[in-house]
Each structure stands twice: as structure tokens, then as C-alpha cells.
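Summary for the funding panel

The consortium committed to producing paired sequence-structure records for every protein in the target list. Below we show the first two records in order, beginning with the earlier of the two.
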Amino acid sequence: MAFPPRLQMYVLAAKARLARAGGFRRDPYPAPPGVELSPSLAHARALAVVRPALRHSDDAGPLCDWQERARAKLAALTGFPVERAAPAATEPEDRAVSAGLTRRRVYLRLWHGGHAPMDVVRHRRASGPLVPLICLQGTNSGSHLSWGEARLPPDPVKIAGGGDYACQAARLGFAAFCLEQSCFGERRERHIAPRSASATIDAANHALLLGRTLLGERAGDVASVVDWIASGEAARVMDMTLASDRVAVMGSSAGGAVALYASALDVRLAACLASACVGFIAETIACRRDDSGQNVVPGILQWFETDDVVALCAPRPILMVSGARDHLFPAAGMERVAGSARRAYAKAGAADALGVLSPEGPHGFYPAVAWPAFHALLDRGPTQSGMSVA
């Protein structure tokens, strides 16, 4: 006698709960020995044999020639907006910030027509010309962490852990440009209903439909900020003197990835601090769970690996930092990327302009070691960068 369908459902659910309670994992789709059914196994086989076609290490010609070809290809793959409308800013508003610092906000109309909050933090006693440093938060509650403002319950812990990038940078003599990244904080999705649990996956998928990527769009946003600074409008609106030819960028985790790719794509960025984001693609995002899609670039492994992206930054100074116990971007993988990319830096006569730090600790930003190393790197970097800070 067959049980009614609903009763069968309850029986199956009870068996599954009993199996979990007993420490057993019940697989309703058992595979016979020797049969590989999981998609990741097929992808792993492909990753083991893929050979990117535009590897910097395979090119015997001048580095600048390879960079020109590679940069154009990376722009096409990511959907980076090579041609952009000049950004426009709203009237500035003075906002509260930590003691000794000032913060002024505008809303920038970026290349795609949307807006982004832009908060510029500097020390009250800072005198120009100040080096602009674009600060990018990772996957968290938003750029307000950069100036030490807590809005959500986890924020105080993140700020105490070094998330107040702009305050740190401003006290070191930078003019910190806090760009709210697409999908985070004030730029979170509001109009799709219902939305996916991930803050970024909807935008990442929609960008793909347009032949773009979320990573390329975010790098384009950074380029728009550089456009704004280079035009002189940022200095006028923010009422400060800026070294507009010496713009740097920094970020951690997802923010670090954008900082790295933006530096590879926009040669006007004179230096980069990329934290908790560097590893070979085949060893990181290509072989683990990813519900965000924010660093996925279709077809990239047919052309590049991460060391090639770093090589596109040569000879400009770049500091890469990753904790020894980082579970997403282990320090050992970052060091292998740096070892390969250093060949391109050496070819450019700037081997010392590529810095690597592996502090003891998990995934995160390490201000106590990152800022002194970044300062030292800027001081001894190649003359092409022209970087120096107070």
C-alpha cells in the first residue's frame, strides 16, 4: 500500500533528520565508483591545462608593448569604460568626523549616469598639495566605516579592526577620497523586489547581460574619480590643493580587488595598496563557493592570470598584503603571484616598487604594518610615479 504523497514527504524528511543527528551524510544521488558527476571536477580538469594567451612571462618584447595589448584586452573582458562622460558633483556638504579631521561630501554623477556618495577626509592642519588616496571598502556595510562611523551592529568591531581607512590616511597626510562602491552601503540595491540574499549577485548578473562585469564597472567608477581629480574640479569643490597627477588607490578584500584592477586599467593611478585580495584565480575564486560574482570576469583565464594584472601596474609602486591565515587569499598564494609579477617589474627597472607583506593573522587589513610599508614604497618607488606624502 502506497502512502499519500504528503506522508511520503514527511517520512523522507524524518529519515534525513535522523541521518544528520547520527552524524551521517545521506546522498540521494549516489554515484557508482569511478564516475565523476560534480561540475567542479570537470572545471578542475580544465583549470589544470588552461594556458592564458597573453601571459607577460611569455612575451619577449618590450614590456610597454605587452602592456598596451594586455590592457586593451582586460578592458574588453571586464567592460571597463574606456570612454567616459566627465563626472559632475552636487554642492558640497560639511559632515561630522573624528577629532582633528574634516569631511566634505558630494554626490558624483559617474560614467554610467548613476550617482555615488564621495566623502573627502583630510587633517585640519594638512597643507597642500595633498596626495589624493581613493579608499575602497570591501564586502561590508559601506564607506562610512572609512571615517569611523558605526551604523550597523558589526561596525564597531570592523572599525576597531582597522576599517577606518580614511582616518588613518588623513592622519598620514593624504586627502582620503571615500568612494561608496556599487552594491554596498548607500549604493545597495533598493528597487529590485525580491532581491537575492547576496548584495552583489543581482548587479553582477545584470552587468554580464550588458557585456560588462561588476569588477569592471567598479574600476570604471574609480576612473571617474580620477577624471574628477585630474580636471581640477575636486580641488575647487573640496577647497583644497591636490597633487592631481599623483592619485593613489587602496582597498581591502573586494575593495582591494577593485584597487588592483583599476590600477592595471588606468595608468594615471600612481600607486596601489591591495590588501587581502591577491591570489591566482585558478587557486581562489575558480575553486570555491562564490555567491557574490563580484570578481568574476568571463573568459579571463583564456588570457590572463592575476600576476599579469599586477604586471600591468609596472613600474608604478604597489603593495600587496595578506594575512598568513587568510582563508580567502592565503599569503602563500599572494607571494607566488608577486614572485611571477616581479619579473615584469624587473624588466621595467622597478623591482623594488613591488612590495609584499604577510603579517600573522586572518583575512583583513593590517594598518600597523601596511601604512609604514606603503610610505616606504612610495619614497623609494620609480621616478615615474612622482609619489611622496607628508
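The next record, for a separate protein in the list, is shown here:
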Amino acid sequence: MIYLSDFISLIFPRICAGCGNSLWKKEEVLCNSCEYHLPDTKFHFHLENPVTRLFWGRVPIETGSAFLYFNKGNKVQRLIHQLKYKGKKEIGIFLGARYGASLKDAPGFNTADAIIPVPLHKKKYMQRGYNQSEQFAIGLSGSMNIPVNNHLLERKTDTDTQTRKSRFSRYQNVHEIFLVNHPEKWKGKHLILVDDVITTGATLESCILALQFIPDVKISIACIATATL
């Protein structure tokens, strides 16, 4: 069996999603060097950080954080691109598992009842075949032992991509496009709202406005990456 796996690896080599080099046997998705050099924000150590400050005066949240810094041309951008457009679902799960190991004991996250990925519209889900934010949520769930719920929040309108839109255009693009199913079942619960990349926060704000129909709900935010805030 060992020889068979070695033979298969010669024909179908396992490649690091970060640098493109071959992975060693115990490496998954990223080589040790790429994983070590991921630009970790460390935001989860602080209840007040650039992500939480982004929502001050807009919508109430318990806390917010993002795992990595996202900059044009950096390794994180390449990972997100592969996750969203190249079918590399394992990248989202891998990053979620790594970040979940840090969040499971972090204030503002360790009391959560469920993880809620920002939903895709059904049309876009059918085109892509999966929701990249849900893959990240699955990874978080495995490390934090908190269930994922991908039915509570629903996207009722298919919107254009947010890429290259201004802050105001992003807000208009996602304003009032989400709805909450059976809000009464989630009274008083603490939810972690999950997305891939946070820039202006317009999409997350729209989700939170919808989730506020749940009585006494508490909401925290966790994203794979944040653009420079």
C-alpha cells in the first residue's frame, strides 16, 4: 500500500497551494514554510481591533476578527482565488481548522452557539458548486466543536461581485438582500458570522441587519482575511 501511494504521488503530485512546490507526506494543503509565513493578524487577542472598529456606529457586534492580511498579489490573495474560483475547497477547510484552534479559547468566540456562513444565492451556488465561506466554517467547526448552520441565513437576491466597487456601491449592492429563516428558534443565541474577505464590511453589515430580527441575538464575526483597514 505504501508503494502504491508513492507511485500515485509520482503521477499526481500533491502541490502546495501557496508556493506550488511538492508537499511532504505529513503536509496538507500548504507546505510548512508557507503555513509558517502566513500573515496572521492576531486580532483575536483583542476585543477591540481593526475589524470590530469597522462596525462601530453601524451595527452592534460582540467582537470580530480575521485570520490573515489580504493584499494585492500576496500569497493570501492567491489562496482565496483558488478557494473561490478553482474548486480548491480544501483551502477553506484547512484555514478554518487552523484559525479555529486559536478562536476556541478567545473571548467573544468561545461562547458561540453556531457558526453561520455568509450565504451565496442559489444561482451562484449552482454555478460554483459550493460556498467558500461554508468551507471555512466547516474548518472552524471542527476545531471549535461548534456546529455550522447554513439554513438560518438566506440570500434572496443575486448581486454582482463586490470586486472593484466603491464603498457606497458595495453597500447599495448588498442592502436588504438577506433574510432569516425561523428567527424565533435562535432567541438569545450567540452566532459567529463567517465570510472569506472583509473590505468595507458592507456584506457582513447587511447580514447582521437581517440577523437582528432574532430577539436578543449576539453576533461575532470571523473572516479568512481582511484587506488593509
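Regarding this second record: Residues 89-103 form the longest helix (15 residues). The chain has nine helices and six strands.
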